[in-house]
Amino acid sequence: MILILAPDTDRESPQYHEMLDHLSRLPGVTARVHQVQGREQTLTEVYLLGNTAALEESEMAALPCVERVVRVSADYRILGRHKDDDRAAHFAYNGVDFSQDNLHVFAGLCAVDTPEHVDQTMRAVAEAGLSCTRMGAYKPRTNPYAFQGHGKRCLPWVFESAGRHGIKVIAMEVTHDGHLEEIHDALEAAGRPTGVMLQIGTRNTQNFELLKHVGRQTDFPVLLKRGFGITLEESLNAAEYLASEGNSRVIFCLRGMKTHLGDPHRNFVDFTHIPVVKRLTRMPVCIDPSHSVGSRAASPDGIMDMMHATAQGVVAGANMILLDVHPAPQKALVDGPQALRLEELPWFLEDVRLAREAYERRRDLAQRFLAEQNRQ
Amino acid sequence: MILILAPDTDRESPQYHEMLDHLSRLPGVTARVHQVQGREQTLTEVYLLGNTAALEESEMAALPCVERVVRVSADYRILGRHKDDDRAAHFAYNGVDFSQDNLHVFAGLCAVDTPEHVDQTMRAVAEAGLSCTRMGAYKPRTNPYAFQGHGKRCLPWVFESAGRHGIKVIAMEVTHDGHLEEIHDALEAAGRPTGVMLQIGTRNTQNFELLKHVGRQTDFPVLLKRGFGITLEESLNAAEYLASEGNSRVIFCLRGMKTHLGDPHRNFVDFTHIPVVKRLTRMPVCIDPSHSVGSRAASPDGIMDMMHATAQGVVAGANMILLDVHPAPQKALVDGPQALRLEELPWFLEDVRLAREAYERRRDLAQRFLAEQNRQ
Amino acid sequence: MILILAPDTDRESPQYHEMLDHLSRLPGVTARVHQVQGREQTLTEVYLLGNTAALEESEMAALPCVERVVRVSADYRILGRHKDDDRAAHFAYNGVDFSQDNLHVFAGLCAVDTPEHVDQTMRAVAEAGLSCTRMGAYKPRTNPYAFQGHGKRCLPWVFESAGRHGIKVIAMEVTHDGHLEEIHDALEAAGRPTGVMLQIGTRNTQNFELLKHVGRQTDFPVLLKRGFGITLEESLNAAEYLASEGNSRVIFCLRGMKTHLGDPHRNFVDFTHIPVVKRLTRMPVCIDPSHSVGSRAASPDGIMDMMHATAQGVVAGANMILLDVHPAPQKALVDGPQALRLEELPWFLEDVRLAREAYERRRDLAQRFLAEQNRQ
Amino acid sequence: MILILAPDTDRESPQYHEMLDHLSRLPGVTARVHQVQGREQTLTEVYLLGNTAALEESEMAALPCVERVVRVSADYRILGRHKDDDRAAHFAYNGVDFSQDNLHVFAGLCAVDTPEHVDQTMRAVAEAGLSCTRMGAYKPRTNPYAFQGHGKRCLPWVFESAGRHGIKVIAMEVTHDGHLEEIHDALEAAGRPTGVMLQIGTRNTQNFELLKHVGRQTDFPVLLKRGFGITLEESLNAAEYLASEGNSRVIFCLRGMKTHLGDPHRNFVDFTHIPVVKRLTRMPVCIDPSHSVGSRAASPDGIMDMMHATAQGVVAGANMILLDVHPAPQKALVDGPQALRLEELPWFLEDVRLAREAYERRRDLAQRFLAEQNRQ
C-alpha cells in the first residue's frame, strides 16, 4: 500500500510525525519513506510493507498529510503501475527531464580510451545538439585477461571535458560499490561540472547487493539493463530492488537477449518489449541498439541494421537511446566494430527524428480513434 | 553459377536449344531452367549445379541467349544475393506486384469458421481498400483433439466470396501435398475468381518433402514462415528448397520465435531481422504481428502491442503484413483473443501508413546522406 | 474415457456389436476402437471422445465385453498414464518386445551408402549379439543441395542383408507418405526377411499430416523423435497424433535440443527427461547419443562424451539406444565424425551393460526402500 | 606460460629471488606467483602474462627453482588443461581432498532457518557418514520483498553445530565482498570448528568484482556455479577470474540452464557437460540436482527425477553433489518442495554409491579397452 502525501509536505511538521507515529504502531507493517523529485515539486510517498491486507484504505486516507492511497498488487510495488495509480512516470536530474513521454539520445564512448577521443566525442555530441553522453570507465569483460577500462583515473578528464562542452548527464557503468564513491569524489573534485547516471550492466542485473547499494543513494539516477538470459519479469523485479531501497529514479534499458536465434545479430533484439515495460511499470524505457545489433552491416536500402533497430524502438515509444560512437572506431579498445563514426551522428539523429515524429503521430491517431470509440 | 538469358528469350528457338545442348555436355554439371514472371517481361535463368568451379565465366557468357553470368557463393544459390548480382527482388501474381520495395496488408481470418464471417471479413477488407486477405482452411494444431479447420469443404465459399468482393490474393496455409490439388480444383470449379498464395507454416518450415512438392508447381506463389526454433540461416535454406525445385516466387515471413525470453508476448518478436533477410536474399519480407504478439494488450499510450510490433516491422521496410481480424473475436474457433475487430481495421491501416511514410523518408534520407558521402 | 474390453474379446460376437451400437447412440460422443498386440494376448480398447464428462463410469462398465473403465485427463488420452490406469507399457513387433522395462540397442548406419558398408555393419551388429539396427535411406538435409539419401533404390540390399544376418528390426526414417508404401513393397518383394520401425525425425515432429498417415497404418511400429525446439509437452502431443489415428505402438526418442547453451555438444542433451516421459506416458523411451553429442571427443578418463551420455540415459532407465556406427567413418556421406567404429561396438555394449546393471540395482533399491517405508 | 617450480621451493631462498628478478626484467611480461596446497606438498607456480610468445621455453626452464615449463593456449590459462600439461587436478582443504577422481556429497539446508533444523540436519548428515554439508545464510532472491536469509547472525549457530558433529566443510553462498569477512570473523570467534567453501551463485557468475575479491583470498576454496543463461565457455572464463587473482582451489558446479525446453523440470539439466569441463579444465565438477530438477516428482519405478539426475551425473564422473535436505520440508522458508527428507538421505547415498560403482567400472573398462587398442 502506498500513501501519497500532499505535495511539498514538510517533513519537519508535527502532522507528518503524527502520521509516522501512527504507522509505526500498526502490527506487522513496516513503513518506508520515499521522496520523488518532480519537475516542479517534491513528492513524498510512504510505502507500507508487510501485513497491509488488514489495513482499511479509508482509514489510511484519513491520516494527516495523506492525499491519496494506492493499494498495490504483488508485483513491482513501487515502480509498477497499479489500478487507479496515476503516480508520475517521470523524474528530473541535473536539469534534464526523463519521462515515458519524451526521448533523449546518449551518444558516446563504450570504453574511454584517450583524453583526445573523449574530448572529440564530447564536442561532436554537443555540436549535434545533445546534452547527454555515455562514457565507459569500468568495463566488465568475459575474459579476465582482457582490457577492463581505465577506472577512476580517467574520471577527471571525462568530467572536465563534459563540463567544457556543456554535457549535463553521463551514463556510466558501475560494477562495484566502491565505484560510486570514486565517481562522487571525482565529480566533487572537478567542481560538479556535469551529472552521472549510474548504469548497471546486464551481467549485474541480478547482482542484488550492488542493486541495494546503488538503491540506497539518491544522488544519482540509475539506468538498469535487462538481464540477457532472464525473463522480463525477473529484470523488472531487479529494478524494484533499487526502488525498494529508496531510489526510484530508474530507467530500464532493453539491450537484446542472448540466444542462438538472434544471429547474425550479436543479441536477439527485444525492443518489442517497450510497450510492455511501459504498461507494467512507470519507468522510462531506454534501448541500446549498438550492443543489441553489434555490427555496421546494412540492408540494400543503405541503412545499417543498427539504425533500423533504433527506428523500431523509437517508433514504438522508446524514451532514451544509448549509442556507441567513436572518433576512430578501428582504434577503439572495446567494441569498435559496432560504433558509429562521429560524422555519421547527424544522419543518425535525423533518422531518429523521423521515427519519433511517426511515433507522435501514431499516438495522436490512437487518442483520436479511442476518443471516438468512447463517444459511440 | 547462374546464366541470365536475354529478356523474352524464346524457349522454342534453335539458339536456346543449342545453348542447352552445350550445357548438357559439361562434365559433372546439371542445368535447371527457371522462369521468372516480372512486371513487364519474362526472364529465363539457367542454374548450373555441381562442378561449376571448373567453368569459365567468359565462356558461359558467350553462349547463345546468355546475357549475363553470376557466380554464386555457397548459400542460397537461387534466392540469395550474390556479388554483382542485380537480379530482380520482385514478382507479380494475379495482377499484384510483390517486391522488396512495396507493402501489402493481408487481413483476414486465422481459421475459416462460417460463410457469414468469411463474407463479412472480405467485405470489410475490400472496403478498407485492400486487395489481399488471409483465410485458414487447413489448421495444424498441437493437440490432435483440437479443431483442425474445415479443409476443402470451405474452399468454395471462400473463393466465391473473394470473387464477389474483388479480392485478388488469399494467403492460405497448406500442410499436405494433397491440399494443392484441392485448392487448384476448387479454384477451377469456381471459375478462378481470385488467386491463392500457398502458406507454409512454422511447424513445416523444415518439412522438406512438402517444400519440394510446393516448389515443383509454379501456379501459386509461396509464403514461407520462419521456423520458430531454428536459426535464420536454416529457415533461409528452407526457402531455397522451394526455389531449387523451380518456384522462386517466395515471400519470407517473420513470425516470432519460441523461447521463454519473449514473455509476456506469445513469441519473441524477430522483426529486427527484416533488413537481414533483405541483405542476404532477394525475397520480399512479410511480418505476422498477430501470432508474434498473440494478445490485444495495450500500453499507456492506448496502442496495442500488436500495432507497435507492426509499426516496428514497417518502419524497417517490411513488405507484407499478415493480420488476424474477425467479425466476432469471441466466437472465433482459433486464436480469437489476438484478432482485431473489423471496425479497428481502418485505424490499423492508418497506423501502418504513418510507419510506412516514416520508412520511405528514412530511405530517402539514407540515399541523400550516402550520395553526399560518396561525393566527398 | 477408455473402455478396456475383456482379453481376446471376439470382434465378431453379438455382445461386441451390442456394445458398439449402444455407444453410437450416445449424444456428442465418438467411439474409436484400438487393438493392442500384447505379448500373449490381444487387447481391445474403445476410446470415447467428445462429451464424455456426461457419461457415468458405472454405466459404461456394465456394457457387454467391457472389463474396466478409465477416465482420462485432458492430455495424451491414449498414450498417457491416467489415474488408476494400469494399461500396458509395452508391445511386441516381429518377435521383439519393446517396453518401459527393458533395453534394446539399435546400432547402424546414419545414412546408407554402399552395399558393402551395409553388409559389414549388419554382420558386426549380429556378431555383437544385437537383433536390431538403424539404416537411413531417406535423409532430410538442411541444405537443398546436400546428399539426400539413396531412397527406395537401396531398400532391397538393406533388407536382404538384414535377413542374411538375422536382424529383426530396422529403424528407418521416413519423411513422406509415399515412403511407407515403398518400404512395404520392398519388404514384400524381398520376402519379409526383417521388420521395420518407422522413424519420424525431429524436423517432422509437428508434421501432423505425416503423423496421421503413419498413425493410420498398424503394420509398423513408430519411433518418434522429440522436436528440437519445442517443449516436451508439445512433442508428447505429437506422439498422441499417431495413437489417435490408431497406432499406439510408439517409442519416444530423446535426441537433444537446439540451443546455444549445449555447446560444445551438437545439441543440449535432454536425457534427464527419461523419467518424465515414463511418468506422463506409457511409451518406451529411446535415446540418440550420436546426434545429441555429435562428436567423438573424450574426457581425461578416456571415455567419449557420447558414451557418457549413453550411460546417463541407461542409468536412468532408457529403453532403447540409437547409435551411429560405420565401417569407415571418414568415408561416411553423412555425420561420419560422430560414428563409432565397428571394432568399438563391443566396448560400447559392455559400457551399456554396466550402466544397465546399475539401473536395475537402483530400481530394486527403490522398491525395497519404498516397501519398507510403507510398512512403517 | 607457466613455470612449475620444484616441490617445496623455499620462497625465502636466494635462488627463488634470483628467478623473480630475472622475470621482472622481461619486457612486456608480468609474473604472478600462485601457491597450490597439494595432499603432501606445496607447489609453487609462476604465471607469465603478456608478451610470452617471445620467450624461449628452454631458457625459462633453465632458471633456478624451475622444474618444468608449460606453454598455455589462450583459454583458461591457469585452470585449463593444456598440451603436455600434467598439473594437478585436485586440492586439499581442512583435511578433505577434492579431485577430478573422487566424490563428495554436500547435503544440507538450502536456507538456514532455525537452530533446531540446523542441528538436526548436521546430526543426520554426520550419522550418514558425510563430512560436508551446505548451509545458506545469504540468499539472493529474485523478488526484493522475499526472505533473504538470516545473514551473519546465524553463522555462530551454524559453525558451532558443525563443530559439534564433526563436519569439516560447509558450502555457503556469498553475494558480497563483506560476507567473506563476516564468515572469517565468525569462524575465528567460534574457534575454527569447521571449514567453509565459498559458493558463488548462478546470478553472480559474471559478477567479476565479487569473483576478483573472492579470488584474492586463499583461505577458502570456491564453488562456482555455472551461469544459467550463458555458454559453458563464458562460465569457465568466470572461473578463470578466480584463478587469475590467485585462488585456484575452485570447483565448478553444473546446476541446470534456464530455458523453456527443460520443463517440467525447474531448469534444463546439463550434467552431460561433466566430461567437457574435465576435458577443458582441471577443476573437480560438482552437480546440483536439487535446484536443477526442483521437485520430488518420481517415475513409475519409484525413483525421484532428482535421484535419476544425480545418478546421471555420478555415472559420468561427477566429483561433488550439492543436495537440499530438510527435517521438515513443508516448513522450509526457501525451496522446501524440492528438499529430501532426512530419513531419505540413506537411500539417496546408497543410490549414489551404486552409480559411482558403475562409473568406476566404466572407467576401468575404458582403460582396459584403450590399453589393448594401443597394443595393436
Automatic annotation (TrEMBL), chains A, B, C, D:
Q: Which GO terms describe its molecular function?
A: transferase activity
UniProtKB keywords: Transferase
A Pfam family found in this protein is DAHP_synth_1
Can you give the residue ranges of the DAHP synthetase I/KDSA domain?
Answer: 101-348
PANTHER family registered for this protein in UniProt: PHOSPHO-2-DEHYDRO-3-DEOXYHEPTONATE ALDOLASE, PROTEIN AROA(G)
Q: Can you name this protein?
A: DAHP synthetase I/KDSA
